[in-house]
Amino acid sequence: MLYLITDMACRLSLMVFVTFPCLLCMCQYSLQLRNKTREEVHAEVGGRVRLPCKHQIKGNVTFMYLQRKAPSRFVNGYHHNRGVNPHEVFANRTAVDRSLAWVELWNVRVNDEGVYESVLMDEDGTKTLTLYLRVTANYSAPVMTVSHSNETVSGRGYVVTCSSSGGYPNASVKWAFQPNVAGTQWVEVNESSVQNQVTMLYAVSRSILVNCSQPLKIRCTVGGAVSQQEEVCSTSRPVVYDGVVIIASVAAAILFIIVIVILVKKKKASPSTDTSDVEAGIEQTGPNTHLMELK
Known about the structure:
alpha+beta
């Protein structure tokens, strides 16, 4: 009996010896998660955003720093007994509120997107918060253009182009057909995406060739922005001719009108010229006639 009790005591001691360090590690890990967390903050280009250093603080704040990682830049902060110098990129567009423990950033740019880290020290000790600032910009309302094309199997089709700009991040043009059609009725002609190297905003465009087998209504979307609905392959839709053909036709008509005007003016000028010649001839023969009479 004594042997059994001793054996159980030894086993219990071993379990406590093995388990206690694990429990201690779990507590330390939980404390680290509480003091060092990561969250995501969203901002729009040109807008304002608050970058938190800690949601709740205890007592007086000794210091509070917010810095950008990759590239490493000091954004702004506070220290109880010395000043701070923000990086020139953030110097004139940030403000600090140490009572609420956040840094406000305005005139947000695409280049501001990235990982930030804040360090705050209060009566509870030092806390670290890692956050990701995600920047977006709304695309302009997509503009659709429709032009006639003969490059289809049926010989009757349209090239539909959808364009939008001023957005971030990069987005693709998506189509919506009514009624819904199979991919065999249209084919992609061109797709482009150009990023402005100053604003870092995108301008996107996409063109498709629609083979007209039935009337269709088409919309396009870019990053949540929706275009007006366009109707194609309708018998009532006027044919859009090529611009060069239209210009050439107008020029030919103007030239024809100019030629007609010149001919009409010449025809009107001919009788008056003949009359003047006759009158001039009479005046010239007049004195000779008088001389003959005197003789």
